Amino acid sequence: MMAAEHLSQNQLVGYRAKTLSPDELLAVDRHLASCNACHERLRQLSPAERDSSYDLSSDEAFHLDYDHHLVPYVDCTADEIDREIIESHIALCSQCAEDIRDLQKFRQQPVPPLVTREIPRRTQPREGWRWPRVLTPQLTGAVAIALSLLGITAAVMMWRLNNPPQPDLVTAPAPSLQEKGYPGPWTDQTPKEPSPSPSRSTPLIALNDGGRQITIEKNGQSTGLESLSPDLRTAVEDVLAKRKFNKSPAVGNLSEADGRTRGGSEEQETIEQLSPAGVVIETDRPVFRWRALEGASDYVVTVHDSTFRAIESSGPTTATDWTVPKPLPRGVTYSWQIRTVINGKTVISPKPPAPEMRFKVLDQKAFAAIENARRAHGNSHLAMAVLYWKHGLLADAERELVALSHDNPDSTVATELLRSLRSLRRR
Amino acid sequence: MHALTSMDNLLLPFIEEPDEQKADLCLTRLIDEHAAPIVREILGSSLRFHLDGSGAERQTGAGSSKQDAGDLFNDIVVNLISRLRQIKLNPAQAAITDFRGYVAGTAYNACNHYLRQKFPRRSRLKNRLRYLTSHHHDFALWTTDDGLLCGLAEWMDQTTHTSTGLLEKIRQDTGEWLREVGLKSAGPSRAELTSLLKAIFQWCARPVKLDDLVNVVADVCREKDLPDEPIETVMNVAAPVVTYETAVELQKNLRVLWREICQLPVRQRIALLLNFRDSRGQEIISLLPYTRAATIEQIAEALEFPLFEFLKLWNDLPLEDLTIAQRLGATRQQVINLRKCARERLERRMSAEMAKHYAGK
Fold it and tell me: What distance lies between CA B7 and its chain's CA centroid?
């Protein structure tokens, strides 16, 4: 459309009302950019207020959140988007920047092993109920035993009253979590009255997960997990029952030290190696990340296989990350070292007594299993978290649990699962 | 009217009232009967706990704390009124589905922000203790109905906790207590805090509320905030609308704004521009081509979108955050935070431009 051919009134109205087709919109937009007359006509169509003001201010100040920003950032588990949010914010907010710096500094401080020693408990009597003063220590013991026996007898009687003998069932129901022997909270719950309709009672655990609801009833029965494979379903139920993640079977001794692949002890400085460290990783082309060391101009990363053979080297790089150029064979445990020179002195990390930086590239079978699960259950944060954890992909598991936590902001179970997984990542 | 269907019923009489005076009465009733009691309760519990419990009160005097609490209450109420008025003007902007929850959230955020400003050392000590109890394998931190509890790892999930009164005994004579438990000194380093926590937990023999622990550790380690200056700006109450006397001024400033937008990281540009509204909820992306600050083609380029894809999208702007989140592979909250970061930076830059603008007049 030539500038000379002015826009019709319909085109201007359509432009303002946002009713033009893409082609027409582009033509009108281009014309308006170069034709003062049409641009002025458009301005006449707009309400006066639109031409005189705008207000960008937000009504609530934004600051970093401890759980969602501070900890993942200092632990280097924040995803790329959160890192961008955090780094943008701390460039402007000195208070949050100081909070981050303080926690980072704290995290970097060494943690000595706790000396096991007997610390005297308080000498004051415990809070709450006290033994009457007339009772001597000997009498106290006797009364305690008598009360215990009375309590046990009363409990047995109550249980019998509330649980009359049941006729044999023709078909046995599927074993519940309780029956499987999981130490869930139901083990110490004896209902005072039998529930007439257990299916309508409030579930013990209810989680929103990828558009579905997962529940665990007081009797240990689960719903919402029917589409999972039996193995995965059992693993998810197990985790929900315990409300925590135990050490991942796939991580093994990746984070334990054995004295190899570490720099000499004479160096005073260390380069903080961020990742990968003590984890299983899904990609076969890992990105190695570290923090810059003051005075260092370039770094060299070396990757060793499980027989301590150097298999890849970055060559000198000024960046603080490096991606291995060729895929590493899967199913192998590797370790990595980084070195630099400061004032003519070589600094190698890790250095004793820090453990070597080991990681394992996920084996092919597990890789394929995860790919399949993503297609089948990709929208279930809980199922994917458990699967990732099972295969040692703890960062991925944490990401899923953060999403689960976002979807269930008031759930203590979601928070506890996230917390326990984070604690695993620190060990 | 979709926004009104999900709006809390409490707000409807105010939002739907066409008469201005009657609407003001509804607003007053909303604040007096529903919001103020919640805000008072939250301020009462949060500030009493921190101001009385942290020992800072002893340093700063009750008067200044009362004054701060009063200021904070007023700031929260002003903020709520401003927000409700915005919603009345443009209910489609964002529905409040649970007004009481919204009030509570606003009050808690304001308290947290206030406490961080007033007691920065305490706040950082709390971060350290949260980090230590959740990352050291001998300790645990868990959530209960009473808030965050911490203690030895084997106590995890217990719900009974040490009373504040008992912990007060440590605070009464910290030197004596340190000798009793065999600690030579205590400080805020990771190693010292690890030993100190172990000693406190063993001495108490049951879990401790995190806030109580912070108060005790602050006393034992002498991590106290200095007597402070009154906090002038507790909350970021809505800034005045930027009004331009002439269209030329607006155009000039929108060009500056556009230049600043182009300096943002691309994800922040997307989060901002695809749901670009001013604080009154009015969409403002169309101001850019109206004022010739940028053409639609240039906006597409800045967003790194294929031109025709963006042209198809233009008529649907502004988009919902969930839709933007799907495009970015992010969560809805991340989109909101990306946009807040973008606005934060733009506000800063544009304020500087405004200052220059008025200085030149």
Answer: 22
Number of neighbouring beta carbons within 10 Å of residue B100? 14
Interface membership of B135 toward A (CB under 8 Å): yes
Gap between the Cα atoms of B196 and B82, Å rounded: 47
CA angle A102–B189–B139, rounded 5-degree value:
100
| Pairwise CA distance, residues A389 & A380, whole Å | 14
ipTM (interface predicted TM)? 0.81
d(CA B266, CA A21): 26
User: CB distance from B172 to chain A under 8 Å?
Assistant: no
Give the H/E segment covering residue A322. strand A321-323
- Of A218 and B182, the structure prediction assigns the larger pLDDT to B182
Nearest 5 degrees, angle CA B331-CA B141-CA B226? 90
75-94 of A, contacting B, C-beta below 8 A: 81-82, 84-85, 88-89, 91-93
Q: Residues 6 or more apart from A384 whose CB is under 8 A from it?
A: A373, A374, A377, A378, A396, A397, A400
Nearest residue in B to A247, CA atom? B137
Cβ of B137 within 8 Å of Cβ of A98? The answer is: no
In 3-state terms, what secondary structure has residue A275?
Answer: strand
Instruction: Rank A279-288, A374-383, B82-91 by mean pLDDT and report only the highest.
Output: A279-288
pTM for the full predicted model: 0.57
pLDDT of residue B48: 63
Q: Do A43 and B290 touch (CB under 8 A)?
A: yes
